[in-house]
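Review session, final week

We close the course with one last complete record, chosen because it touches almost every idea we covered. It is Glycine--tRNA ligase, a protein from Astrephomene gubernaculifera with 731 residues. Go through it on your own first, then we will talk.
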Amino acid sequence: FAKLLRQAGTLLGLRFAAPVAGRLRRGLVCGGVQRTGAKMSEQIEKEIQEAQEAVTKQGDTVRSLKASLKDGKAEKAEVDAAIQKLAELKITLEAKQKEFEKATGKVSTQSKEALRAALAGVLERRMFYIPSFKIYGSVAGFYDYGPPGCAIKQNMTQVWRNHFVLEENMLEVECPAVTPEVVLKASGHVDRFTDFMVTDAVTGECFRADHLLEGHLEALLEDKKNPLSPEKTKEIRELLAGVGELKQDSMAAALKEYNVRAPGTGNELSPPFPFNLMFKTSIGPKGDMVGYLRPETAQGIFVNFRDLLYYNGGKLPFAAAQIGNSYRNEISPRAGLLRVREFTQAEIEHFVNGDDKSHPKFESVADLQPLLYSRALQMGEEKKAAPMSLREAVSRGIIANETLAYFIGRTWLFFCKVGVNPARMRFRQHLQHEMAHYATDCWDGEVETTYGWVECVGLADRSAYDLKAHSGMSKIDLTAFEKFPEPRMEEVVRVAPNNKQLGAVFKKDQKAVKEALEGLSDTAAMELKAKLDAGEAYTLTTCEGQSFEIKPGMVEIKKVTEKVTGKTYTPSVIEPSFGIGRIMYCMFEHSYYTREGDETRAVMGFRPVVAPTKATVFPLVQKPALNELATRISRDLTAAGLSNLIDTTGNTIGKRYARTDEIGVPFAITVDFSSIEGDGSVTLRERDSMAQIRVPQSEVAGVIRALVDDRTTWAEVAAKYPAQKAQADDE
Ligand code: AMP
């Protein structure tokens, strides 16, 4: 793992191996499940819960005793004894958690829930994000980002822009969220962007059918009091794996068979019915033009394809990108930022000739070994992702082509850059039935969290579907032309519709039929010719899905040899689609840890590049000369583009660190008397190692800039400057 990380660092031209690896080791890692006595693990889980409750209770006692000590109502000895007891209880808790992990290979639900609750406390207290419209009781699925949340989101999108848009010379666009119906009709969203919903037959409350079924089946599998037969277990597992793909009637049958009831009330449920997830609106004062809030940013790119191709000098391949908000009226928003109704997407459409999906930069990522969870591994016994080089995955045909693999590699590197633990991310290939009929290959970039594996990025080879759909609806040519280096003599298929006959038979549909005939691929046209030559009829389907019977005499098809200068084709598209909020949440979970031996000291171990505030500046004590120097250093940091906080509250240094640790400030500068009277140096402390060095005040902003930009590592900086011993009250 450390080797992989170094490899990522080298490829990115970054220097992050030491600090990230050190921090990630502290992250919680869920390993594969070893089947050991279920009873035993249940018993340990119970003990963990009790130990957790005891720690929480004792933590409260310590806090109130500390407050009483300040008011002179408690003795120091009493507080010390309570702290000592808290430390002992934590040791017991940790031992129980370790015991559980050892026995099962998993992180216990208790510690997952405790971690989630503790993290939620920090995120809300420090206003990373909070429910929107809170004073009016909030609306599910909407969140406001507070100051650190805004800064992190901004940093993350900037890293994304640099990593993808800049690196690949992508063409960035920004399109409106309000979209006229015709666009989303062409893309298929008006007709098919649905989830199945069920309602409580008595109260009318709405639920997502697949979520209810999933929850119910999982509960059946976990019900220790009513164990299932091995056959039933197998049947339920198989059903669970395909819940997301069930058709309406199979969903209805499964809900009925397993007697799924409304949560909370236990009432009967309505049969499942499709619910369109788009927010509908009307455009203009008359209200007669239907519009929707876009459910994805991708369509804005497709509808601009012709102009983008022209902008790019008619050359392919090229990629366009868009960062912006998308809207989905989720039936049951849940899990904080993971499933919301308004979220920021960052999407790429890489347009390429379908005949050649090689990528000129594939070599640069070919030796990366992300965890790949291929179809074969998902169907196999172990059901576990395994590391594999992208080179091997392409050469063995596991990943369909180099371009798709290239983006998988670049996505993996992006995750590393922003602080997602590479040991807890994987790329899961869609099973055949999960993919749309037109898709060639799809992989989800998934990250492991306390909620399970979360899809953060979808990477899909969508063939030429999108451009063909928009071309069909808009009647605008969305093809590209590839000029051959030399003209060639080629056999081409010529399709000549007989307008008179078509008009007589199809009347108002004549135009649509003619266009469909002219749009046939060479293979389809030759199939049609074979049928007509045999005196048979041929069923022609238009882009809008209408079918027409083509009979002999309606069209003439022949093969001719011609001099051709190039080829016209509808480009294929490879689409990586990122959800910024989901990646942020996963990164929050992977960054969170507590200081060794003190459960109450939360640290958000953000990578400096995404950290909301890069440095804090403290005067050691409250003195005008020290405050003045601190202000000057803060100005230097600002001038270097480094967000910083200056703290002259006079709190103990330990207390100040505790506050800044919670918002993940990676570096702290302390100015003391030797900064003004001695050698002029200041103390620079690194958050995760808590190591301190002395740096000349004129160099400190430059050092932090280089650390934030990943041009150097803390280890390199620490080797260059003298170490400073931590003072007793520093931590
Ligand atoms: P999709 O178009 O459904 O493949 O979504 C693309 C990406 O958008 C996903 O990988 C997620 O990261 C993100 N995403 C989709 N739906 C939501 C949602 N309701 N809340 C937050 N992020 C979402």
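Two points worth writing down before the exam:
Residues 15-36 have pLDDT under 50 and may be disordered.
The radius of gyration is 30 Å.
Good luck, everyone.
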